[in-house]
Amino acid sequence: MYRDPVxxxxxxxxxxxxxAMRPLRVGMIGIGTVGxxxxxxxxxxxxxxxxxxxxxxKMVVVCARSLAxxxxxxxxxxxxxxxxxxxxxxxDVDVLVEAAGGTGPARDWVLAAIRAGKHxxxxxxxxxxxxxxxxxxxxxxxGVAVAYEGAVxxxxxxVKALREGLTANRIEWVAGIIxxxxxxxxxxxxxxxxxxxxxxxxxxxxxxxxxxxxxxIEGLDAAHxxxxxxxxxxxxxxxxxxxxxxxxxxxQGLDVTCAEQLGYRIKLLGVAKRRQxxxxxxxxxxxxxxxxxxxxxxxxxxxxxxxxxxxxxxxxVTMYYGAGAGSEQTASAVIADLVDVAxxxxxxxxxxVPHLGFHADAVNDNLAVLPRAAVHTRHYLRVPVHQAQQxxxxxxxxxxxxxxxxxxxLACEKAAPNxxxxxxxxxxxxxxxxxxxxxxxxxxxxxxxxGPVAALRVEMLEG
Length: 463
Ligand code: HSE
Fold this sequence. Notes:
It comes from Acidovorax kalamii. The protein has 3 domains: 184 residues, Rossmann fold (3-Layer(aba) Sandwich); 164 residues, Dihydrodipicolinate Reductase, domain 2; 84 residues, Alpha-Beta Plaits. Helix content is 37%, strand content 23%. The protein is built from 17 helices and 17 strands. α3 crosses α15. The relative contact order is 0.12.
């Protein structure tokens, strides 16, 4: 009789190979959105996960602020404590899951666990963006793994794709929508006319936003993630401090509607791009609201969904889509990391997939993040003018400033209602940011210009 292999794995008893080995013992700090989801999925899919890992994965101790609340999630069979360090260094723990978030204390717990010879799994992108280089160096020294698939675009296995599936490639760029909260806000504002504050409140209620939502809306969370992706893509250290970061708080609804008129949608993008051309050598590492063509796949990634595109020299463009926030969606990645750790039994540290995809001696410390002035993209400009006919003057002035103008037109009534005065919309060809900045600065003094000029990048991205 035919038996569905997945159904077989869901059978209550463990496969014989999985029962032979001692379970991987997990200590977890934090039982909030990520921690509770991890416990729930681990419990629900216990036999299936053991069948894949080759051994059981068992939560043995949890640290929580409220022990009563923790007990309501994990029951009586898991030890509970208020002391994170006790979990980090617990003699019965093989792997620490850091699910508390934050940077300072989390760094101390993770380093303590590593020094105690424990593997670490975390979805804490802020921690790794700020302290990753130190943490990975300590992990190398102590021969343990630090796994962080849940830190980037939660449900999407993009870290694994970059450092394993695409390992043959010279990566040219990685770009995408990697913050669920801001994508949710932009989608609500565009599709349902919901205001910024209300859309943010909804994202918080759904558990998408960070404890401090400033990280989401100011682009920092996306910058944490793109810094980790850049390190894996290009063999460079984590360079979050050098990233150029712009969020969506200064974005105007007027630019959303004007972009639509031109056939574009605005998305908060993280971009990491290797440049080796006549103008620059290094990496563009940036987060900003940018126009993407309305026909592009990224323009159709809505709500809290994420999507990441990777261009490899051999693979060409590949694209990965999935939930960008959420409890069990993050748990999916955290448990995948736990399974990877469970499978490490008996492997030598030097034979494992390196933390950042490249072995330490192959990491290029000299690969610089390019300054803002060197970034090279197309641009969108919106120039408020006193009278519609001044469109001619604006076009001519920009051309004289060495800005390669592709298209100039007036915003229609639907995009910019009459009370706002005439708005000249400009699309440029690819040009360095320094040229655009100079031109925008000069336009501010132009007699035809009636107010601040809005400038946004345009990303064409293949695919
Ligand atoms: N606050 C994050 C987001 C959660 O909205 O993408 C997942 O990293």
